[in-house]
Amino acid sequence: MSDYNFAYLDEPTKKMIRRAILKGLAVPGYQVPFASREMPMPYGWGTGGVQVTAACLTPEDTLKVIDQGADDTTNAVSIRSFFAKVAGVATTTRTGEASVIQTRHRIPETPLRSDQILVYQVPIPEPLRFLEPRETETRRMHALEEYGLMHIKLYEDIARHGAIATAYAYPALVNGRHVFDPSPIPRFDNPRLESPAIQLFGAGREQRIYALPPFTRVQSLDFDDHPFEASKADGACALCGATHTYLDEIVADDQGTRRFQCSDTDYCMERRA
Amino acid sequence: MSILERSISAEAPLLSVNGLTRFYGSRVGCQNVAFDLYPGEVMGIVGESGSGKSTLLSCLAGHLETDAGQVVYNGQDVLTLPEPARRRLMRTDWAFVHQHARDGLRMNVSAGGNVGERLMAGGARHYGNIRKTAEDWLERVEIDPGRIDDRPSAFSGGMQQRLQIARGLVTGPKLVLMDEPTGGLDVSVQARLLDLLRGLVRRMGLSVVIVTHDIGVVRLLADRLMVMRHGQVVEHGLTDRVLDDPQHAYTQLLVNSVLPT
Fold first, then answer.
1. CB–CB of B109 and A152 under 8 A?
2. CA contacts within 13 A on the Cβ side of A203
3. In this complex, is the C-beta atom of B107 within 8 Å of any C-beta atom belonging to chain A?
4. Which of B117, B126, B149 is nearest residue A148 as measured by Cβ atoms?
5. What is the rounded CA–CA span in Å between residue B12 and residue B43?
6. What is the separation of C-alpha B214 from the centre of its chain, rounded to a whole number of angstroms?
7. What domain of life does the native source organism fall in (chain A) (predicted)?
8. Fold of A11-131+139-220
9. pLDDT value at B8 more than 60
10. Chain centre to alpha carbon of residue B82
């Protein structure tokens, strides 16, 4: 522990990241560039989220890390033990007990409170990226609110699949101004982005931070005749019986039997306790 | 002054260009170009390669910075408009047809999406209506509406060019800028495209600035003609007058260089 500064990053770096976070909170949905550092884990493992978490942590915090809703996957376990080691903070798997939650691809089912911070790991922060490869052009489009392109993606979905097939990373308009990519959370979670908690998004490789202040208006993009729908698998959790949670589909045996299970392991466990 | 010239100059010009100048370092791109374009009029710009005709068109469209001059549209100098307003103008009231269709199309988006883009950029949010409009426009540019979900990369060169035109015209623009729209197409496809363009221009009452090195194209489409050389306008007048009775030595050379058909 004494070999590292608190939470791994040096203090000037944390200050730089906090400035980016504050700017992100001041302009909800705007992607603030920041000088992302090399972290002791590969890109794609949540280097952006880890840096944001490191800049937010205080010694009194309790940290929870989830990956696709689960507390026990490699990514979640290694990031949790990373901060236990370099920051010495308490860790938990209980959503209600955590003050900082780092997440990959899910929002916890347990409603968040205003004293909690949710940190997302973001692979590609630019919602327009696959439609417009030039960064100079996408930044100009954000600046001028030219978001017609975003609807082309949805149009293509309907033309090809008969319905909006974008099931994750579903683009949304933040505070009536910036279209943003809510990281690859399932679109089931999109309506839950309007939350009392502070939500921070960190993209390490792309060097961007953006944020949603509490209770920010988030409108998922759609067409008048194809409205947004927060879809989930039609089934119930095989463990706790929940039908209102986001479900993972699991192949259970060699015969291809399938069953559903809550993607949020902590929530499922609490229901069974 | 001919009857035609008098009848169109009775209205105010749609586009009025004054002293438009663009340098590439010390070389001249185009210098002191001035013309008026009236509603429903087609203006051809001809000249050899490097004469500045494409530079002029790019300056009009705002693709290139201009060193001096004005481009007045609807009483406003387009060159001094703030960028949001200029870009809005470019995707509603104006359209640009590139020489290479792939410059003007989104190649990884279906034909319907390409035609619908300007509608959605303008705030259209009803999928069914957008699709219906796109189908309608594909038909108007003689593309089978059954191919609405095909990507432009599956289209022939002539179809891509027609799709690009549909994509530009879907918002009902008043002014269309065309850069060698028939370049690189074979003769029969060219003829069909020109036929289509002529029909659309007449029906929609479009004003067009068309840049080409093909005298045949301007003779068919253009009401008036501007001849450029070394970045300067050397001759300017009604198409038939310029082509049948060229005054400037260079125009005479140009007209005489056309291969007899």
1. yes
2. 23
3. no
4. B117
5. 16
6. 14
7. Bacteria
8. Rossmann fold (3.40.50)
9. no
10. 23
Residues A24, A29, A202, A204: which is the catalytic one? A29
Number of Cα atoms under 13 Å in the Cβ half of residue A19:
9
Nearest neighbour of A156 by CB, restricted to B84, B113, B121: B113
Kindly identify which residue of chain A lies nearest to residue B114, measuring between CA atoms. Answer: A152
**Which chain A residues touch B110 with a CB distance below 8 Å?**
156, 159-160
Stretch 30-59 of chain B: residues touching chain A, C-beta under 8 Å: none
Residues in chain B: 261
Contact B90, B62 (CB under 8 A): yes
Measured in degrees and rounded to the nearest 5, phi and psi for residue B205 equal 60, 40
Q: How far apart are CA A39 and CA B36, in angstroms?
A: 61
Give me the domains of chain B, ranges plus CATH numbers: 15-256 (3.40.50.300)
Interface contact A162, partner B, CB < 8 A: no
Hey, CA dihedral for A47, A51, A57, A59, is it positive or negative? positive
Q: pLDDT tens-digit profile of B197-228?
A: 999 998 999 999 999 988 888 998 999 999 99
Neighbouring residues of B226: CB distance < 8 A, sequence distance ≥ 6: B35, B43, B44, B45, B46, B233, B235, B236
**Cβ within 8 Å, pair B130-A159:** no
Q: Is A149 on the interface with B (CB under 8 A)?
A: yes
Looking at the DSSP assignment, which residues form a beta bridge with residue B232?
B229
Nearest Cα to B189, choosing from B134, B123, B141? B141
**Model pLDDT, residue B10:** 60
Written as six digits, the tokens of B49 are 């390669």
ipTM: 0.84
Tell me the C-alpha distance between A61 and A80, whole Å. 13
Domain parsing of chain A, residue ranges: 11-131+139-220, 232-273
The answer to whether A56 is a known catalytic residue is no
Alpha-carbon distances of B153 from A243, B189, B192, B203, rounded to whole Å: 44, 18, 20, 29
Query: Cβ-count burial of A208 within 10 angstroms (0-12 exposed, 13-18 middle, 19+ buried)?
Result: buried
Q: Is the pLDDT of residue B1 over 80?
A: no
Burial label for B50, CB within 10 Å (0-12, 13-18, 19+), is middle
Contacts of B126 in chain A (CB under 8 A): 223-225
Do A105 and A68 touch, CB atoms closer than 8 A? Answer: yes
The β-bridge relationship of strands A100-104 and A117-121 is parallel
pLDDT at residue A138 above 90?
A: yes
Reduce the DSSP state of residue B22 to 3 states and report it: strand
The span from the CA of B89 to the CA of B73, in Å, is: 10
Contacts of A152 in chain B (CB under 8 A): 106, 109, 113, 116-117, 120
Q: Return residues 117-156 of B near A (CB < 8 Å).
A: 117-118, 120-122, 125-128, 130-131, 148-149
